[in-house]
Amino acid sequence: MSPSAKSAAQTPKTRLASVIKTSRDIMRKDAGLNGDLDRLPQLSWLLFLKAFDDLEQNRMIVDPDYRPALPEELRWSVWAADPTTRKQGDALINWVNGTLLPGLGRLKGSDQAGDPRTTLASVFKETNNRMLSGYLLGDLIDQIDKVHFTSTDDIHTMAHLYESMLREMRDAAGDSGEFYTPRPVIRLMVEQVDPRLGETVLDPAVGTGGFLVEAYEHLRAQARSATEIAKAKSSIIGFEKKPLPYLLCQMNLLLHEVEQPTVTRTNCLTFTLVDQRKAGVDVVLTNPPFGGEEESSSLENFPADSRTSETAWLFLQVVMARLEKRKGRCGIVVPNGVLFANEGAPARIKKKLLTDFNLHTVVRLPNGVFAPYTLIPSNLLFFEYGGPTRDIWFYEQPLPEGRKNYTKTKPLRYEEFADLAGWWGGQDRVGRVENEHAWRVDAAQLAADGYNLDLRNPHRVDDLAHRSPEELVHELIAVEEGILAALRELQADLGSDA
Question: How many CB atoms within 10 Å of residue 81?
Fold first, then answer.
């Protein structure tokens, strides 16, 4: 079989997997790239430019009046695609570093949402070329040019390959405090919150875009026309503080055919709660950062009696504010500390949650869902505007039979949520019954107990001898973090009284 015939016989998955493997092998040779934390961003911004140019060229064919968003010299088809005219070696590095990236970062768009020049400027304002060898960079460009973003097969295949690379990125980034939500958890949350076509979906801490991608796919499945597909694309919005996740998110959405996503590169906590309420949404799906501390300027956007340095509490207030105007609903990942903290600002925030909203379901995730990136036990809260909460259903998601934890090689699978999904009872949550994993708690009793939501399963014997060391350590860590948070609140109160 000739090389050309062999290439034609390859499936898109085989061909593109080979392109990605070769690309990564090339990048491993470059002295400027150290590990996947460097290689994936480098690959992402080059793929982004190739995809953007392919889509623009296709648009010009469909619409002869369309004018490209990029100046001609910055378009992939002009500076990169032809190896015989492309700059070589140091000349290529100097041009990319001195002309291409600064030119992209200086693009000026309109105030119109989704203006591609604004998006490009936001993506590339803080994007750097880390490769040192212009010859290796040229080899990498040749590989990327083999991906055809005008082909539906290539786009869909590349999207799956890219998501696998994002999982590897999560592995590499764990040591630096970055970890992302496993796809099975995202899928469960999206399916149970069930965004409907025409509703606006927000992730205020978007990361690499997992929730928005899943929400878009969920909305797109409901679309019956090109107009409704366009509505689904315009319905997802997000904010991301850090430049690297923002770049990865833009590429992720582009590969899922959301060409002009409404994702803003900013810290959502810099808006006042008054402004958050004005910009209401129908649905919030998010896994906000927790365990960190925010700048004092951001804290000033929150009422004095609910200010806290713990980001999880700040984002919970943002989410509640965003849902008030449209009487929306939410699925959010929170650490155990949010459940049991029952003094100071945390207690006041939880009181508002249970007074103004219906916190109908708390899903307690098993050990290791986010391991090894964090050992902090996590939970899923599902609530909707229109309180007060009368009672709360708790569901303790079990580990598979015979397992004590999840690992990178044996992660959580979506199929493990089958019993939970069957128990849920649809969007109206009808027919729920108590069982070995589910129980119902009266909200009035919770209020009397200081809004402590860290409740153990009453159907499970609380026998320390039969609880795993990992579970006990996790629980001790959570208790210590709660004590530390309470001490910080006390310190802040004492400082304000001085």
Answer: 16
